[in-house]
Amino acid sequence: MIIRRALAADLPILAPLFDRYRQFYGQPADLERAKAFLSERLERDESVVFVAFHGGEAIGFVQLYPGFSSVRAARTFVLNDLYVADDRRRGGVGRALVEAGVSHAREAGAVGLSLVTGVDNRRAQALYEGLGWARETAFVEYGLTLGADTKNAAPVSRSGAVQV
């Protein structure tokens, strides 16, 4: 398995994975929307995406959004999206992608990472806790859905993260 940072040229292989990720969270299939969204993030340097390959096939990705902590007066990242193709799960791909994200955040001088996952996504919780992530208990999280696309909206966290 090879994991590397995604480039704009990777959009044709990354967008189908991103579209399946969105479908996992109840959104309708929309490959063009997935391509446009990822293209904009990559072109504007608004996110960092790492993609995992096995035998030349893209099998998963992790997307980080840069942020800041006002209290700590420092850079942070939100691990917003993690997806591994169904037939590649339970093989260490998710772990390797999260580790790539953590490594990137460290190299960028971030003081921390955050993420939100579904309360019923036990596999993801086990992965994160196994990698040393601590469950947040000091804060209550709220979300407010805005915009015209509310019928297809996934739950949104205070950081803008959807549940992964």
What's the structural blueprint in terms of helices and strands?
Elements: E1 2-5, H1 11-24, H2 31-43, E2 48-54, E3 57-69, E4 74-84, H3 93-107, E5 113-114, H4 122-130
Parallel strand pairs: 4-5
Antiparallel strand pairs: 1-2, 2-3, 3-4
Helix pairs in contact: 1-2
Care to describe what's here?
It is a single chain. With 164 residues, this protein is α+β, with helices and mostly antiparallel strands. It has a single domain, classed as 3-Layer(aba) Sandwich (Aminopeptidase), CATH 3.40.630. The protein is 31% helix and 23% strand. It contains 4 helices and 5 strands; from the N terminus they run βααβββαβα. The chain has a 5-stranded mixed β-sheet, sandwiched between helices. It is globular. The two termini are 22 Å apart.
Describe the structure using short key phrases.
alpha+beta; 5 strands; Aminopeptidase; 164 residues; 4 helices; disordered C terminus; 5-stranded mixed beta sheet
User: What pattern of helices and strands is seen along the backbone?
Assistant: EHHEEEHEH
CATH topology category name = Aminopeptidase
Task: Using the coordinates above, name the CATH class.
Answer: Alpha Beta
**What is the architecture at the second tier of CATH?**
3-Layer(aba) Sandwich
Report the span from N to C terminus: 22 Å
CATH H-level homologous superfamily name: Gcn5-related N-acetyltransferase (GNAT)
The helix-and-strand class reads: alpha+beta
Strand order of the largest sheet: 1-2-3-4-5
Number of H/I helices? 4
Q: Point out poorly predicted stretches.
A: 158-163
What is the helix content?
Answer: 25-40%
In this structure, how is the largest beta sheet organized? 5 strands, mixed
Taking all Cα atoms into account, the compactness measure Rg is: 15 Å
Question: Which overall shape is indicated by the principal axes computed on the Cα atoms?
Answer: globular
Mean pLDDT, all residues:
89
Strand content: 15-25%
How many E-type strands?
Answer: 5
Number of domains: 1
